[in-house]
Amino acid sequence: MMTTAITETHLSHLPLLHRGKVRDIYEIDDRHLLIVATDRVSAFDVILPTAIPGKGAILADIANFWFQRTQNIIQNHCSTMDLREVLSDAADYKCLKNHAVIVKKMHNLPVEAIVRGYISGSAWKSYQHNRQICGIALPAGLQQAQQLPQPIFTPSSKAAVGEHDENVSFEVIVEKIGRELAEQIRQVS
Asked: Pairing with 183, which of 108, 144, 154, 174 sits 20 to 30 Å away (CA)?
């Protein structure tokens, strides 16, 4: 069992492109990236001081499960490149094999696609303010953590480290990426 948390990675043979709230992203070549899910913990857009050993491995497993499960619904960035080709150093491979995935470079969308079945968190705060979530009117009398009458698509902006993701209306997403792509994201979600 792993007892040491991976809070930051340093792979000297690969350029670090981005260190996010939880993931470190390295460039492998002109077509591939290495994404490492660290054990850092982020809540409410803040990186917390204490990491959880093994969290990144679980996060990577869950993501890989869903990418595999939905690959026939929507194109994803998963690659078949062998991780041992990239992490040729035995110590790096042993440490990161369950945390790292190789992906194809693709265009990143500045959108977080969220589907809610229950009203909680930022959705609850928004509902209390004006009975709406992301511009979607909801019935009066809902209680915190209550199941919604039907699932709703509530996109948010994808903020940089130190900034907060913001819930936005579908029309804001349309303005950012165009109606056709926004509709596709909502439909697939």
From this structure: 144
- The predicted-structure confidence for 122-151, as pLDDT tens digits, reads as follows 899 999 999 999 999 999 999 999 999 999
Give the amino acid at 14. Answer: L
On whether residue 2 sits in a domain, the answer given is no
The domain tally of the chain equals 2
pLDDT, mean of residues 52-68: 97
- Please give the structure tokens belonging to residue 121: 């968190």
Per-residue pLDDT, 107: 87
Residue 181 has pLDDT above 70, yes or no: yes
Domain CATH code at residue 133: 3.30.470.20
